Amino acid sequence: MTCLLEMHDVHLAYRLRKSLFRSDYHPVINGVSLKVHQGQRLGIMGHNGAGKSTLLRLMAGIYAPDRGRVTNHGARVSLLSLQAGFDPRLNGWDNALLSGVLMGMSPKEVRLRLKGIHEFSELGDQMNDVLGTYSSGMRARLGFAVALAMEADLLLIDEVLSVGDQDFQEKSEKAVMHAVNQGCAMVLVSHSPIKLKKWTDSVLTFEKGIICPPAPEKVGTSA
Amino acid sequence: MHRNKSSFDAVYRIFQVSWLRALMGLKAESRGTRLGYLWWIIEPAMHLAVYYLAFGVLLKHGGDDYVAFLLVGIVHWLWFSKSIMNASQSILVGRGLILQLPLHTGIFPLAEIFRDLMKQIIVVVILLLILSVMGYLPSAYWTIYPFIFLLQILLTLPCAGLVAALMPFIPDLRVIVPACLQLAMFLSGVFFSGDLVPESFHWLLSLNPAYLLLEAYRDILIRQQQPDWHMLATLLVALLFFNIIVIALFGRFNRQYARIIQE
Prior knowledge:
Chain A is an alpha/beta fold. In chain A, 33% of the residues lie in helices and 29% in strands. Chain A starts with a strand and ends in an 11-residue tail after the last strand.
């Protein structure tokens, strides 16, 4: 089983600037070690403010750890960031192109996928309209369609996928499942145990900046 | 995160993303107004017309070549100062994206520089037309223009990059940079030529890259003479060094921006 991403004793603290020369440190991650394997669906549970988003940003390579290592074994990691780089003054096509390129695809790769994105988003002719005229549900659908078009080896998802109406939600859940069945690994962070149970095959509890030991019998098993 | 890619691919991607961001930015900008793309021509034309009227027609100031002298100075100075102002805020404006995606921070100032570069090309065409109408007809010297233009890009890149890179660390620069730019405008000979400055201060002027570039533009466009090649060659070497330093700076601090912006 190929290991895609490895975290080894990762520490991270945010600095709170108090005055010109004084600052406090607020530790968020206190020595996290974990591995994500190909095809694994890993859930990470934690309360609000536990540092779940920070953990995902470390995995995605957005943050560099203060101490420890985050090793990516050549995997295309995608933090499912909906509507990244969207501009309300551009139409749906341009926004899809821009957002896709920012997420890591080449313009050519995005252009090849535009048709698929258009179909998945169910926007029809409104794809030619400026994004500013879209409802928030429509924006979210387009954002999700673009994010999904990116072929990743590891999908990082912050909180549950609650995009658009019931139908679209089911469709997006199916699409993510499809990607996972194709061998794409997934890390989902959430505070809801029910969602995590439904979506993932192993759940870690993340509290006070460390991964808590319970439920070891399923940790690290494959999908 | 693509760990196995070569650094050439990484640089190529930075340029690709910046370029697309610049194009889309221009497109979005033009959608915001009724005249759209036409503004790229109207705005600089209006600007130049104002200076022409004020100094050429109303004031009849400073000798025969003064209006042309001023227009060449203004057009190229404004490009430099606009690029720096726009780039200076770019990393802070791109905050949301930096926290969402593992992007190279250099993309943000670079996109702004590209954007102003594309607008400048139109401005230059208008300037050259105006100069021709004023009697400064195209000559063989004009073929040197692209080289000096390129030198100016090499000056803008590290200046804008440096300001953009420092801004998240020192937000106070937001106030300092415009003041410095204004001072620099008066020191760069936008409004005066070198012979108005006492001989004993000439060495100071020749340390100012913006002044050297403006004079080179005027040499080829107005005075119809060779620019000071020796000086320009020295400038080229210095600017290449400056570029390398700023690129190294971005390489060093790139991954810290997400944290700094967040904190």
